[in-house]
Request: fold
Amino acid sequence: MKNVTDAIIAKTNEVILGKEQQIKLALACILAKGHLLIEDLPGMGKTTLAHTLAQVLGLQFQRVQFTSDLLPADVLGVSVYDRNTANFKFHPGPVFTNVLLADEINRATPKTQSALLEVMEEAQVTIDAVTYTLPQPFFVIATQNPSSQIGTFALPESQLDRFLMRITLNYPDTASERKLLQSNGGREQLAKLSAVIDSKQLQALQAASHEVHVSDALLDYLQAILQHTRQSAHFNAGLSPRAGLSLKQCAQAWAMLAGRDHVIPEDIQAILPSVAGHRLVSNNTLTSNADNIAQLLKAVAV
Amino acid sequence: MATQKIPNKLEPSQQAIYWLLISLSITFTLYAFNLNNWVPASFAVFAIWRYLIEKNNWPYPRLWLRLPLTIAGGVAVLASYGSLFGRDASVALLAVMIAMKLLETRTKRDFIVMVILSYFLTVNILLFTQAIWVCLAILLALFSLTACLISASYQNASNQKASNQKASYQNASYQNISLQNKQALNHTQAWKVQAKLAGKLLLQALPIMLVLFVLFPRIPGPIWGIPQDAYSGMTGLSDSMEPGNINQLSLSSKVAFRAEFKSTIPANHQLYWRGPVLWHQEGRRWTMTSNNINLPTETLETAGVATDYTITLEPHNRNWLLMLDLPKVPSTDSLPDEAAIKHDMQVLSKLPIRTRIRYEGHSFLQYTLGATLSDYERTLALQLIDDENPKTRQLATKWVNEQKSPVDIIQAALSMFRNQPFVYTLSPPLLGSEPVDDFLFNTKRGFCEHYASSFVYLMRAAGVPARIVTGYQGGEINPSGNYLIVRQSDAHAWAEVWLQDKGWTRVDPTSAVSPSRIESGIAAALLDSDLLPLLSRQDYPMLKKLTLNWDAVNNGWNQWVLGYDQNTQLALLKKILHKDIAWEDIGLILVSTMIALMLLVSYFLLRNNAAALDPVKKAYQQFLKKLSKAGVNKLAHEGAVGFGERAAKALPDQSIEIQEISALYSSIQYAKHEIINANKTAAHCKIAAHNNHKLNLLKQLVKKLKLK
Reply:
């Protein structure tokens, strides 16, 4: 199992240079059957990462560029009157795929955003009283620009909660950047990238990640963390039970990527910033959320 | 379903009532020996009733039934004890009310009230008896009560069970079965868990109990005032003697006293334990001199080496302290209870002996007592009621007329006993109106008091001053403990005659009749030994050995537990602290010891409680300690593996070992090693063994790890 995941990571690494940690996090998110939100400035390789992952995992891939005039029907699909059959015929939207890349999700209006987020939750689309099931596996990789940029509709907390993880890519280190500059950019390689696994194997991996053992001692630690966020003065509100469940699932996937059959506290610590970062609202506007989470980890004894 | 008892929200688990019934059964069995029989009997009725309520879901009795029952209980106690106060009556009242309270014990609060009352009732048994087996039974009862208290607090779990049960009625049958199985499992587990916890709690109370026992200030004498009637059952020597007194005493195997000798135990024929000295004859009755007689103490010259011993005297509700013939008392200070020595060498305490006491004795086996005889004493020692026993007087006069010396007269009397067919027996025939004549010339069958009294009568009739001494003769050596047990069956009577130049000389006419009585004890001397109590007989050596061992245990219990009084306490404290302690300071010592004990307990509780319990964490703590000495400290939020990596970097020489230990600890802590399944399968055992193996490996690795 570790060989497979290592191969996936290595292959992705060839395209996205020097971002092994983020690649692993993204993969863990997918193995935990969650949706991924990548937040960064334009041009950091968000789209490339999403595209590469879909390719490597052998999944069907669709991309929607969100804009302020994008309508829900543009994402979900629309029923059109067919003159030949004298009937309404459903034209499935780009959402009918394995991987949907929702580019710059915060540029779309809340109406479109929430249409997508409903699909994310239920993995099905209901139009004109007919329910269409999405193919499995299905997950959304959304990218967004930092909300302070002009022309964005920030996702509210309730909708951020739908994403299992939020990661940032950041600038590459000098060596990776040099390598990138020497090549013609990732896009070229992307075209000739072959799949490492197929969707069936991915589902097997997801099932295996669910089986990773979580001991009572670890749950003690996890609950201590949850408790701390709820009691701490640093946060506006503590982590929800769903967030706790997400933490557990991600830690399981992370442990599997490390080739372990059980979760250890280090796994929780590794995924906590990505899983809890977008769910916790800091009371203190002066310290960054990342700092708060680092503080949180320091405050809870293993 | 409608008649079914609906599980009450406040009702404790089912075990609680059973624990309570077990405990009370023990307690009431013990009370069966001490209270009127109807009290334990009424408990049996109510207990069975309550049991049936629990088992068959009978309704609890209503108020119109409970109220008259309560009044009837009170009236019954009043009727049978004549009062509601005093030890017996008040304990009986408490016992009856507790027995009836069973019928309304259903909620948690009821149980707590019952348990507290029952603790009190159980401990009250000690007011009646303090034997070891009673204390053991009390411990058992207290254990059950504690378990009851625990299971009464388990109510939440039971409610869940009750709701399970409800659900299972409605569910499909297969589910029903599996649920019931689970419940059965839960029940046995619950018993075990509760019993275990109760035992643990009692064990934890042990140190506190010991400290309180050793240090609680003692008041001389019993703390509670027990009415006089409590002593009516005590047996022992009497201040007067009639033929038949002592042979009745001989039927009792009760221990009179125990004696420990500092040196070797003297031979059996030297063991004359001096009790009441009888001077005054009146018919067949012999009595002591009056306490107001104020005669000077007889002079005593001793020879040879003194014999020192310690006597633990059982309470006998009389004043005399038994001493080995013949005690020399340097000063009365050395005697307990403000005892005094009488002119005829009896040691008498001021108050009747009602608690077990220990005292030291200092005796000489060779002595000359009362070298000169005052006229008053001579009159007393020759006193006889006139016109009785003509045949005996005739015989005495005959001897006097033959010009015999007192020594010859004694010899003549003893040879009469020896040569004529006199028999030593526990069942002598009744004597007629002239008892001495009847015995000497007719029945010739008697026990020691017959011989002693007729001998003294003969002597006095012949003009030789004489008196009867009663007490005990001999005793049984207990090899486990090396002390002497003297029982009531060793009671004896002998004579003392006064001879010119020799003073009071002991003459034991019984030894003339039955030398073996004096040489080897009563059992050997009697032909009809079947009449003796079982313990004084010589058959059944196994039984004998067992009882002797048991007596040794009992002796230790008496000495160290029951006999632990103010003096022993002060002596013990002096030994420990090397300092004289005033009894007023004992309270202070008690309080400071308790505080120290509590501090110790809280230290252990606060000091990394979990680590102290879990061997895995303990081993890991050792590992952390070693690293900490080497300068690498684990931060609280660090995981074992992460810390291991950091430590390995800091201490590159041992990096492999450190990482190995960290990984092993992490895997023991977090890896899957338990099958979540109640029944223990082979696989489960295998995994448990694997875990043990891992733990041992961890311990070894930590032990081997050496850091600079």
